[in-house]
């Protein structure tokens, strides 16, 4: 940590104090952890960013995880960066009511900023986000750049849980932010389309810290790469078709089996499945899998059918852990929104029609390709026709 108490005043490691000054403060025995009030020692070495550590190991409510040098460096840099822009800035401010200690806290705006480098599971993430919400504090996460890898233009691989912190910009598209303290650089990820647990199609905008305003971090950028996203999405669909037969994940095994018993091959799934329909990302399972399954269910149901019937079927598979919902605590929505969004898409393709609040009727049969070449051809046609990326 970078903050301690000395004679009941907050002191921190972001300034110019010398090693000797810190050690003489420590010798008075008055250098304490602001949260648990136990003694801390200044660590003023040459390998790590100077910081404080508890003198004896013990439970401290203010410590959530061990801090690496990368994290300490990033936190300090972000603090300096924000100091030039904001007033009433607090480093490691302890919010006693919820026992949480955001890396940086903007006092006037009730806004917590977390710099996340360590691995955090979805439940921990969610409970921290809800913690802030419970006391009316806005929160945002900036991730360590080490957590993201660029696979190719507009294609990134993230840590498994990064998407949990995704928010929607004012155009409704998902975004995340990354920061590298070594290069003093931000990477703003915009127009994110998740394609698996870790892989996303997105636009990355790089900024030197000195050129970035705080507000830009939560803003949208004008998308210029619709064609590219469309192309990447189609490539992904191709990959799904080419690899489904050897994929052994529970969801794919299940849907493969269901299709097999109905004389269909998963490789030749309908071109209407695997679409980034509105809200599709609330279901984490690959869209080609859950959408193929819904198409199959719609086929089996008599017409008219209800939204509820499809929801129940999805719910059943989620309880069995065959399908997975994606938790997005900042967004208002759940797997039902994904199903509804997909039905809207099918309606736009004239497959079904909503006849009242509850009922849908089938209008024409779902198309299925007979060969792989035919499938690739249809995928291209449907994605173009649907202007798919307007859905998201
Ligand atoms: Zn403590």
List the topology elements.
Elements: E1 3-6, E2 9-12, H1 19-27, E3 31-32, E4 40-43, E5 51-54, H2 69-83, E6 89-91, E7 104-106, E8 111-116, H3 122-134, E9 138-144, E10 149-152, E11 155-157, E12 167-168, E13 174-180, E14 185-194, E15 199-208, H4 226-243, H5 250-261, H6 287-300, E16 305-306, H7 307-319, H8 335-348, E17 352-354, E18 359-362, H9 372-386
Parallel strand pairs: 8-9, 9-13
Antiparallel strand pairs: 1-2, 1-3, 4-5, 6-7, 7-8, 10-11, 11-15, 12-13, 13-14, 14-15, 16-18, 17-18
Helix pairs in contact: 4-9, 5-6, 7-8
The structure holds zinc ion.
Protein name: Competence protein CoiA
Domain Competence protein CoiA C-terminal: 233-375
Domain Competence protein CoiA nuclease-like: 67-219
Question: What's the helical proportion of residues?
Answer: 25-40%
Rounded average pLDDT = 92
Put simply, the count of helices is 9
Q: What's the order of the H and E elements?
A: EEHEEEHEEEHEEEEEEEHHHEHHEEH
| Gap from first CA to last CA | 40 Å
Written account of the structure:
There is one protein chain. The protein has 392 residues and is an alpha+beta fold. The protein folds into three domains: 1-63, no CATH class; 65-224, Endonuclease, Chain A (3-Layer(aba) Sandwich); 230-390. It is 31% helix and 21% strand. It has nine helices and 18 strands. The protein has helices spanning 19-27, 69-83, 122-134, 226-243, 250-261, 287-300, 307-319, 335-348, 372-386, and strands spanning 3-6, 9-12, 31-32, 40-43, 51-54, 89-91, 104-106, 111-116, 138-144, 149-152, 155-157, 167-168, 174-180, 185-194, 199-208, 305-306, 352-354, 359-362. The strands form four sheets. Strands 6, 7, 8, 9, 10, 11, 12, 13, 14 and 15 form a ten-stranded mixed beta sheet that branches. A three-stranded antiparallel beta sheet has the order 2-1-3. Helix 4 (226-243) packs antiparallel against helix 9 and helix 7 crosses helix 8. It is elongated and about 80 Å long. The structure holds zinc ion.
């Amino acid at each position: 940590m970078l903050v301690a108490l000395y004679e009941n005043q907050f002191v921190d490691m972001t300034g110019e104090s010398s090693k000797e000054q810190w050690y003489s403060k420590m010798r008075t025995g008055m250098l304490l952890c602001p949260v648990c009030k136990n003694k801390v020692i200044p660590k003023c070495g040459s390998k790590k960013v100077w910081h404080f550590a508890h003198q004896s190991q013990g439970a401290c409510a203010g410590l959530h995880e061990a801090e690496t040098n990368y994290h300490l460096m990033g936190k300090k840099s972000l603090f300096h960066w924000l100091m030039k822009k904001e007033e009433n800035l607090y480093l490691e401010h302890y919010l006693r009511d919820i026992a949480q200690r955001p890396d940086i806290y903007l006092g006037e705006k009730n806004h917590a900023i977390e710099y996340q480098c360590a691995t955090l599971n979805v439940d921990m993430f969610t409970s921290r986000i809800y913690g802030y919400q419970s006391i009316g504090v806005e929160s945002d996460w900036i991730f360590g750049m080490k957590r993201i890898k660029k696979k190719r233009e507009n294609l990134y691989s993230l840590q498994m849980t990064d998407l949990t912190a995704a928010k929607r910009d004012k155009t409704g598209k998902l975004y995340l932010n990354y920061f590298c303290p070594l290069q003093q650089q931000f990477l703003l990820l915009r127009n994110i389309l998740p394609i698996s647990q870790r892989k996303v199609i997105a636009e990355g905008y790089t900024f030197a810290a000195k050129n970035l305003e705080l507000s830009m971090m939560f803003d949208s950028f004008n998308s210029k790469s619709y064609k590219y996203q469309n192309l990447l999405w189609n490539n992904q669909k191709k990959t799904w078709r080419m690899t489904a037969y050897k994929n052994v994940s529970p969801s794919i095994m299940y849907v493969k089996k269901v299709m097999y018993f109905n004389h269909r091959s998963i490789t030749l799934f309908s071109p209407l499945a695997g679409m980034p329909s509105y809200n599709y990302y609330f279901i984490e399972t690959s869209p080609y899998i859950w959408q193929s399954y819904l198409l199959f269910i719609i086929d089996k149901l008599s017409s008219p059918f209800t939204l509820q019937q499809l929801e129940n079927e999805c719910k059943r598979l989620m309880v069995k852990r065959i399908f997975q919902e994606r938790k997005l605590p900042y967004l208002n929505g759940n797997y039902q929104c994904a199903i509804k969004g997909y039905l809207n898409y099918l309606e736009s393709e004239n497959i079904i029609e909503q006849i009242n609040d509850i009922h849908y009727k089938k209008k024409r049969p779902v198309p299925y390709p007979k060969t792989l070449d035919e499938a690739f051809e249809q995928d291209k046609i449907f994605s173009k026709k649907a202007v798919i990326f307007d859905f998201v």
